[in-house]
Each structure stands twice: as C-alpha cells, then as structure tokens.
Design goal:
It contains 16 helices and twelve strands. The protein has 392 residues and is α+β, with helices and mostly antiparallel strands. It has a single domain, classed as Beta-lactamase. The strands form three sheets. A seven-stranded antiparallel beta sheet has the order 2-1-12-11-10-9-8, with helices on both faces. The chain has a three-stranded antiparallel beta sheet with strand order 3-7-4. A two-stranded antiparallel ribbon has the order 5-6. β11 and β12 form a beta hairpin. α3 packs antiparallel against α16 and α4 crosses α9. The longest helix has 19 residues.
Amino acid sequence: MMWRNILTLLLFIFASPFALADTCGASDQEIQQIIDQARMDHQIPAVQVSILCDGENAPHNFISGSTTIEGATPVNSENLFQVGSQTKSFIAAAILQLEVAGKININAPFVKYLPTLPYAIPAEWRYISIKQLLNHTSGIYDYSIDNAFLSQEINTYWQNAWAPETLIQYPVDHDAATTGFNYSNSDYILLGMIIENITGHSLGDELAIRFFKPLMLDHTYYLPGLYDDQIKQQLAHGYDFYAADYMPGTAMPVDVINQDMSWAGAAGCLLSTSSDMAIWLSHLMSDNHLLPPKQRAELMTLVDLNTGKPIDPSSDGYGLGIQHFGKSSSSPESWGHAGGTNGYSALMMWYPQKNLVITTNASDGNRQAVPLENKLAAYILSIQNNSGIKNA
C-alpha cells in the first residue's frame, strides 16, 4: 500500500505542469521559443530577457541572437544594452533618498537647488517643483525634440558632446505648457543636475554609491559620452533602422556603437543587462532599505497621462520615474518603464499580483521589447493562474 501511494505521488508530480516547469511555473523551453520566434520575426540581432520569480533572489536569464547583425558572436547574459529611459527610475530613487536625508523637499521649486544656472530661465520655471519634474507635469519643453538640437545631432550623426547645462538651453526658448502631462527628457536632465549640485559628486559616481554597488548591479553603468574599448567589447551592438528617414543615402541599418550618449544624460544613458534591471526593479518596488514606505508611496503616486491631475492608484498613470498600468486595462496590473534609444529598446515590468518581474533588452530601434515582454508575461501569468500558483 505504501509503495502504491508513493507511485501515485510520483505520477502526480511528473504529470503536474508546476513540477515540470522551470521558471515561475512555466516551461523554459516555451519561454525560449517565444523569445526566439519574436527575434526572428522582427529581425532583431540580440535579445536578453530576465525573469525574477516570487520568493527567489536570482533572475532566470534567457538569450537569443548575436552581438552583431552579422551573427559572429552569440549574445550572453552579461552583454550590455542601452536601456534608455529606464535611467529615470534611478534618478527618481536618488531624489527620494535625498529627501529621506533631509537634503531636499520634492514639493519645493527646483530652482532652489540650482541657484547658479549660467543663463536666465523663463519666469514660469521658478515655480516648478521637483515633484513636477519627476512626474512630467512641469510643462518644460523636451530638448530632445527641439529642431535646433536635432539638426546638430543629425549633421554629426550623434557625435556631439553635450553638457547638461547646454541641453537645458534648448527648452528655454519654448513656452512652458501650463497644464497636463508632458513627457519631457528635460525634466530629468534638470534632476541629474540637482543631484550633482547637492551631493558634490558626478551623477555616475552617485548612482554607483547609492545603487550599483550596494545591490551588486555589476553590469550597470552610467556613461554619458563615448564608450571606451572595454565597454564596446561588452556591448551587444544596437542598430538604428530609421536613420535613412533623416539621413538620406545612409546604408541601413546603422550600428550606433560610436554615438556619444551625452545627449541622453540623466534622461536615458544607462547601460545594463536584463538581469541587473530585474534585480533593480524588484528592490525599487519592495525593498524598504532602498526606499522607506513613505517615499515608495510618493514614487507610486500617479498623475493622469493626459491631464496631469492626481488619479486613483488603480488607474493607468505616471508616478515618479515609473509608470503604472492599472487593473482596468486589458493586461494584468503592472509597474515599470520602457526605454528606447536610437538602436535599442527595453522594458522592465513588475506584476504585483504574482510578485513577478520581467525585463527585456533588444538591440534594435524598432521598439520590439514591449510586445515581446507582453507576450511573455501573458504566457507566464496564464500558466501560474491555471496552476493555482500564489504569492509566497
């Protein structure tokens, strides 16, 4: 009788989808197939995906493709990708830590912490709070879509070296929007300048001290400039598929490895891996040593993506350097941020219902990280729901 019971138990275990599953209750083989298929369908040179399951400390890493479009070297989980605007979540967290230390008031006008700007700013800027910079309700024009700025970059194909103070001169000539949500990279360039002014450190050093080293994000770098040979050797090359639209006669696609990333600065020049970003997002959303509950509540305070008005926390909206996709949407509730540069796309998402983190990096400018990750999340969450897997 005992052996029969043991045999029955073994048959149940080996027939159970949860027992056969490798990652968060889902099949590694199925996950890999989804990634490989998306990469081939959209002709993406390299894809990197990391999945951090509830109750686990290390992400499950998946890779597909090669570091260059020619396919000579397979991509690995330690290759670096530009993650673009995901940089903003680090900037927001640094500002909130400065608030914890009593060095900043996020409801105060930002000019209080930048008293020595080398040029006159519009009068209306003097009433814009740090919080309005964080949640993109400042109304300050986005320098990165300014025609004069773009003209200079296109003429040199993104080879110019930019100081933050120079980037911020471009929105000065534009009237600030008086109402609404207006996503602006200028907001985060200003926040980066504030962090440097308060701490006396370069932004790269400050982010390393606060986040990269303590969280052991060993493959994450803030690099606003040209890459040296050591970084280039670690990079999965990114490709701009749209260069011909603004540079007629350009052979397509264009490898962006030699671009000067100072143009993105605190708004989006971070290099990382999907594994590091999964660890980062997990800490950002749940680690009280990183952000105390009060500051995390501020981080997750939302504004409407059109009106900029405060909204219910269950709705779709923007917080402080992070976005919320509410329960009312067609997909499961999630928190995260997308990122995109001329040759890369990225997405990091935390699904609180299952305490699941998925991060995706892609070495293309076609923004395919978002649909790929959405497909992965739908698959994993459906397996978990069907298997009855619950939060720990």
